Amino acid sequence: MVSRVIPVDPFDLVIIGGTGDLARRKILPALYRRFCAGQMPDGARVIGAARSDMDDAAWRDFVGAALDEFAGAAGCDDRGRFLSMLSYVTLDALGARGWDKLAEMLDSSRVRAFYFSVGPRLFGPLAERLQRHGLADEGARIVVEKPFGHDLGSARALNVALAQHFDENQIYRIDHYLGKETVQNLMAIRFGNMLFEPLWNSQYVDHIQITVAETVGVNGRGEYYERAGAMRDMVQNHMMQLLCLIAMEPPAKFEPDAVRDEKLKVIRALDPVEETDVVRGQYLADGAQPGFKEHVENAESTTESFIALKARISNWRWAGTPFYLRTGKRLRARTTEIAVVFKDTPHSIFGPEAGQHRNILTIRLQPNEGIDLGVTIKEPGPGGMRLIDVPLDMTFAQALGPEAEGVPDAYERLIMDVIRGNQTLFMRGDEVEAAWAWTDPIIARWEEAGQVPLTYDTGSSGPEEALALMHRDGRRWREIRA
Ligand code: NAD
N or C terminus of the chain: which is more exposed, having fewer CB within 10 Å? Predict the structure, then answer.
């Protein structure tokens, strides 16, 4: 298998916030890796734009240092040529400084992408200034980062502000989960195989579990996280995207609006969540490690670092099959997986002593990306018909060999999709609003009640009550392990 790298057309990419953390850690290393892979054509230009006074040489030094730190093992002999594609303009998103110079630098005959790597309060002013300086024409597109709003009202206001200057097909809202290779594999597994789809409904699926567990705390991001919490930071965006991809109807084509229409239908079919179907938690201090309240520097904090909830989708396919979602920080292991737990066979010909055995299809998104199908077989040897479950386990790295190593990371893929003008892996405005419309009442309920989250120990699976959420349905969470 030889991976195909098709160079994109020459482009100008302006990183507004080009001296920030996201640019340094993700965007610039991603561009460099695509350059080394041969995907960035001669003549492509990357322009850093931010408030700091800097010249081209100083920004190239900044980028060089970022690549040393964050580009990993990826690299090529030609770093100098990559750096020569870079230039810098000092720009004030809220003032006049730098805009005329930026407009002069850009070539209106090619694709121009403006990556808003700044806080959301600058999205509207930036869009307005781009238009005022003649930079919002058809060849232009803008990329906006999460968080896209804090609730439905603010997300709607952002959509309105952007729509005054750009068409929806020029707006690329990033949810970097969608750029992950394994997340796209969800669609390949479901819609590229005949095997699963006939069983993919409430007649055969007992329930589905989605777990995103982290071992890290909120270190260094306390201020942001205290305002967001796990619900806004993880559930409203990344986890709902996973839920959509696992639950949606097959789109007629793998095209942006066909896929996004189907995802939107899933969100709109979600029932409101019952109060008793949500468990929130905060991690406690552990020896030398501070707890959540110390990390966010608020002894009265009522923000959650863990959430587990039961979601129901009221449509023909999923009525009666619950979706259990769980995410948290400082948990036992770092893992992201989706488990599709099939129902018991309707009748056991082996009698009650053979025990209950269920097929579980586990899609591991990280680490050890792969799929694992639990199959029931006979325990080898004499002594009657005893049954055991064994995994049909495929780790993609093993199955694909070296091919799996050169796979672009989420930001590499998404940035190249922006240049190519492919919005399939980006969220549409109505999708983001629908997701907020579902999460807002859940958040409002606990904010109105001043609900205090439960506590849990570092290295655990979250509060005990999260286990009870499934136990009372006669089910149990899969163990959190790497
Ligand atoms: P940051 O504070 O490190 O960088 C902000 C950048 O914006 C700097 O380059 C700064 O000069 C520039 N800037 C600020 N005000 C400006 C103005 N008025 N005019 C021009 N430039 C201005 O922030 P960050 O961590 O890079 O995050 C950027 C955005 O990406 C935020 O919305 C954040 O929520 C989001 N995000 C960040 C990460 C991450 O890993 N850092 C991950 C996901 C999303």
Answer: N
pLDDT value at residue 2: 46
Asked if residues 123 and 16 have their Cβ atoms less than 8 Å apart, the reply is no
What residue owns the CA closest to ligand 1's atom 28? 118
Tokens of 250: 């097959």
- 19 C-alpha to ligand 1 centroid (Å): 8
16 CA to middle of ligand 1, Å?
Answer: 8
In short, whether 237's Cβ falls inside 6 Å of ligand 1 is no
Q: Which whole-number Å values give the CA distances from 259 to 202, 204, 242, 249, 316, in the listed order?
A: 22, 24, 13, 9, 19
Give residue 6 CA to ligand 1 midpoint distance, Å.
31
Tens digit of each residue's pLDDT (9 = 90 or more) over 155-180:
999 999 999 999 999 999 999 999 98
For residue range 10-55, list pLDDT tens digits in order: 999 999 999 999 999 999 999 999 999 999 998 999 999 999 999 9
For residue 110, the SS3 value is coil
The verdict on the CB of residue 20 being under 6 Å from ligand 1 is: yes
Q: How far apart are CA 354 and CA 377, in angstroms?
A: 11
Average pLDDT, the chain: 94
* Among 165, 176, 207, 238, the one annotated catalytic: 238
Side by side, which strands form the sheet with 171-173? 86-90, 45-50, 11-16, 111-116, 140-144, 171-173
Q: Is domain 178-407+429-471 classified as CATH 3.30.360.10?
A: yes
What DSSP assignment string belongs to 365-392?
Answer: EESS-EEEEEEEEEPSSSSS--EEEEEE
What's the confidence (pLDDT) of residue 100?
Answer: 96
- CATH (residue range 11-145): 3.40.50.720
pTM above 0.85, yes or no: yes
First to last CA, the chain: 29
From residue 38, alpha-carbon distances to 6, 33, 71, 78 in Å are: 8, 9, 16, 11
Q: How far is the CA of 120 from the centre of ligand 1 (A)?
A: 9
Q: Ligand 1: does its nearest atom lie under 6 Å from the Cβ of 94?
A: yes
1 pLDDT band (50/70/90 cuts)?
A: very low
Q: What is the largest CA-CA distance in the chain?
A: 84
Contact 17, 23 (CB under 8 A): yes
Give residue 322's pLDDT.
98
The answer to whether 11-145 and 178-407+429-471 have equal CATH topology is: no
DSSP letter for 236, please: I
Q: Does 357 qualify as catalytic in the annotation?
A: no
Residue 77 is predicted with a pLDDT of 81
Six-digit token pair at 204?
């055969």
Q: Give domain limits for the chain.
A: 11-145, 178-407+429-471
Going from the C-alpha of 211 to that of each of 214, 363, 461, the distances in angstroms are 10, 11, 11
**Nearest protein CA to atom 9 of ligand 1, as residue:** 17
